[in-house]
Amino acid sequence: MTTEVRVPTLGESVTEATVATWFKKPGDSVAADEMLCELETDKVTVEVPSPAAGVLADIVAQEGETVGVDALLANIAEAGDAGATTVEERPSQKKQDTAAGEKAAASGGKEVKVMVPSLGESVTEATVSTWFKKEGDSVAQDEMLCELETDKVSVEVPAPASGTLTKIVAGEGTTVDASAQLAVIASGDAPAAAAPADQGTAPQAATAATGARDVEDAPSAKKAMAEAGIDRDAVQGSGRDGRVMKEDVAKALSAATAPAPQAAAPAQAPRAPVAAEDAAREERVKMTRLRQTIARRLKDAQNAAAILTTYNEVDMTEVMALRNEYKELFEKKHGARLGFMSFFTKACCHALKEVPEVNAEIDGTDIVYKNFVHMGIAAGTPQGLVVPVIRDADQKSFADLEKEIAEKGRRARDGKLSMAEMQGGTFTISNGGVYGSLMSSPILNPPQSGILGMHKIQDRPMVINGEIRIRPMMYLALSYDHRIVDGKGAVTFLVRVKEALEDPRRLLMDL
């Protein structure tokens, strides 16, 4: 008996969708409610779960096809009918599956699939950056198999069972979605290494699986390219494995027909020619997903916001004296070191109450004022700049702030931060002084409207009551979105921060 898989309800006024991605192929076993495919409408993306357990007998609507509500997508056969289902596989795929089956049989255990773990809210794909094991290696349960990179965090994938890693489905550099399979483990007591013949064929199988497979463009895209007379090489595919979708053809046609602005410069200037002897000494490394996201977000901030920076300087004498007086007692009582970040966080929270537009954001034609402070603390890591968020910082004590800042900074450097811990910030502090920066203009962290830049503390001669004194001074820089923050508000905010730091008693008196 077969069970039909049909297009679910797509929402009010939505009558059709495009089949974007199939997560399964004919012949694959599926569990009830397991995601089979993904549909795209003009408003949302809809995942289609399996209505029953069994085997995917055939796919009726291929990737790229447009389907209406309740249209037939595929058929699922009962597990007992799996043998009767004929599925034509590529020779390379048959060879891999046969080899994996032989390894599983040799180990005496059952096959366990290694799937992509939860990547966090709004993250739909990741890149396999590093495999710590190779095919034929023995693995222990919860031992790290590989590492995935998303556009925000790195995710380690542990082994779901002990046994032998018989097959790597997604090799290094492969982009996988949130429900993809990464590998196969033959559970149970397995030999420490596979036979030499298996070791020799594993790289070939991986190459066949990742680099040499044919990519079939969507039928609707082929038809659109034929009608428009556009060459396949002129279209950049956005579908799975780089396949061309119908909307990619539309984008290519729009780009070809749209007049180029006279004064606009290209998004990225072409690389200048490099001499052959210099090229031989260069090293080309692909940007990580995190670095690509950092680059894109910073450029988007410059393009979208009207960024302006105002500067001031603060005499750190009183803060340094207070810190030196109480740091030992503070650490003894609270188990945390007393640094400068808690003072700056408190001073910013105090100033944000007086100038709330610096803590606001633009949403279309509305200004959204936040009656709370989720403070972003920028942290440099080997992978790039990340901004963990201290939630409700305005409600926390000095000790709570120092503990949380230290803990999240440590986890940021180790790549252990979750997506939720880097979302929802309303204002950001960036401390370039730890690297020796004397002055800089920080870039906004969208959609926030303000960011404070701290810098190096340096002794400078200052005139105090008509006398020249040597004082530990720090330059402060506030970058703000001039669309909603006026110059008066920005200067007032920075002056309030300066006053609170030069006389910390003002924080206690709420002055």
TrEMBL record:
Tell me the domain of life: Bacteria
Example GO BP: L-lysine catabolic process to acetyl-CoA via saccharopine
Q: What family does this belong to?
A: Belongs to the 2-oxoacid dehydrogenase family.
Q: Where is the composition biased (Basic and acidic residues)?
A: 87-97, 229-243
Cross-referenced Pfam families, in alphabetical order? 2-oxoacid_dh, Biotin_lipoyl, E3_binding
- Which organism's genome codes for this protein? Lutimaribacter pacificus
- Please name the InterPro entries in this protein's record: 2-oxoacid_dehydrogenase, 2-oxoacid_DH_actylTfrase, Biotin_lipoyl, CAT-like_dom_sf, E3-bd_dom_sf, PSBD, Single_hybrid_motif, SucB
Identify which cofactors the protein needs according to its UniProt entry: (R)-lipoate
- Name the keywords, alphabetized: Acyltransferase, Lipoyl, Transferase, Tricarboxylic acid cycle
User: Subunit structure, briefly?
Assistant: Forms a 24-polypeptide structural core with octahedral symmetry. Part of the 2-oxoglutarate dehydrogenase (OGDH) complex composed of E1 (2-oxoglutarate dehydrogenase), E2 (dihydrolipoamide succinyltransferase) and E3 (dihydrolipoamide dehydrogenase); the complex contains multiple copies of the three enzymatic components (E1, E2 and E3).
Protein name, UniProt field: Dihydrolipoyllysine-residue succinyltransferase component of 2-oxoglutarate dehydrogenase complex
Gene Ontology cellular-component annotations: cytosol; oxoglutarate dehydrogenase complex
Its UniProt entry gives the catalysed reaction(s) as: N(6)-[(R)-dihydrolipoyl]-L-lysyl-[protein] + succinyl-CoA = N(6)-[(R)-S(8)-succinyldihydrolipoyl]-L-lysyl-[protein] + CoA
The segment annotated Disordered runs over: 83-107, 193-243, 256-281
Molecular function terms from GO: dihydrolipoyllysine-residue succinyltransferase activity
Q: Which NCBIfam families match?
A: PRK05704.1, sucB
Its EC number(s): 2.3.1.61
Pathway given for this chain reads: Amino-acid degradation; L-lysine degradation via saccharopine pathway; glutaryl-CoA from L-lysine: step 6/6
Compositional bias (Low complexity) spans? 193-212, 256-277
Taxonomic lineage: Bacteria, Pseudomonadati, Pseudomonadota, Alphaproteobacteria, Rhodobacterales
Q: What class of enzyme is it?
A: transferase
